Amino acid sequence: MKKPLILVASLMGIAFSAAHAQAAEPLELRKIMNDLGKSMEIVTGGISREDWSLVEKTSHLIAEHPQPPLPEKMRIITFMGTNMSKFKGFDEQTHEAASEMAAAAQEKHGQKVISLFQKLQLSCLGCHQAFRPEFVANFYGNAAK
Ligand code: HEC
After folding, report:
1. Confidence band, pLDDT 50/70/90 cuts, at residue 145
2. How confident is the model at residue 84 (pLDDT cuts 50, 70, 90)?
3. Would you give the distance in Å from CA 17 to the centre of its chain?
4. Which residue blocks in the chain are alpha helix, DSSP H?
5. Is 92 among the domain residues?
6. Contact yes or no for 32/66 (Cβ under 8 A)
7. How far apart are CA 144 and CA 27, in angstroms?
8. Is residue 22 in a domain?
9. pLDDT category, 3, cuts 50, 70, 90?
10. Residue of the nearest CA to atom 30 in ligand 1?
11. Does residue 65 form part of some domain?
């Protein structure tokens, strides 16, 4: 009767490591977010140097940031449930503020760019404060962050 026990034990091991690997796997969304973070830094540098064409180009990258692949999107929608429209609302604010910032940069209107940059950052912060802790806990487990 030893063999079945070993088999069960090793199957459990496989199941555990599969679940573990899935929990630790970073979402595509995290990569998208990291790129957004980098773009924000580029915009800050561009504002300091009054390099409006750089600010304009980078604002478009923020406004038109990619979406996660469909299966991941489905997981996010399932997790968000009735909060999905609020979550989407923050994303729309990000798109809107970034496109307005691109237009202001095209006009070389520094002050407008800066106030829109603030509006943009508030949209990032709004979503992070409302959703990030539970989001990270759900997709990575509490210990991940
Ligand atoms: C609609 C909601 C939403 C908006 C809007 C949003 N984020 Fe995020 N952001 C998230 C979520 C959810 C996470 C956690 C993702 C994860 O850990 O997989 C996150 C994580 C991040 C991270 C951390 C990534 C890491 O490696 O842990 C950065 C940086 C970031 N966002 C930047 C931004 C910037 C910059 C903006 C605005 C231009 C922005 N985000 C707008 C939802 C949002």
Report:
1. very low
2. very high
3. 26
4. 2-24, 28-48, 52-63, 70-80, 84-106, 110-140
5. yes
6. yes
7. 13
8. no
9. low
10. 33
11. yes
> What CA–CA distance (Å, rounded) separates 66 from 37?
14
Tell me, yes or no, whether 1 lies in a domain.
no
What dihedral do alpha carbons 100, 104, 110, 113 form, nearest 10°? 10
Q: Does residue 141 have its Cβ closer than 6 Å to ligand 1?
A: no
Distance CA 2, CA 132 (A): 47
CA 44 to chain centre: 19
Supply the residue whose CA is at minimum distance from atom 37 of ligand 1.
Answer: 124
pLDDT for position 104:
98
CATH number for 118: 1.20.120.10
Q: How many domains does one find in the chain? A: 1
| Protein residue closest via CA to atom 31 of ligand 1 | 33
Residues 43-69 pLDDT 10s: 999 999 999 999 999 999 999 999 999
Domain that holds residue 137: 27-144
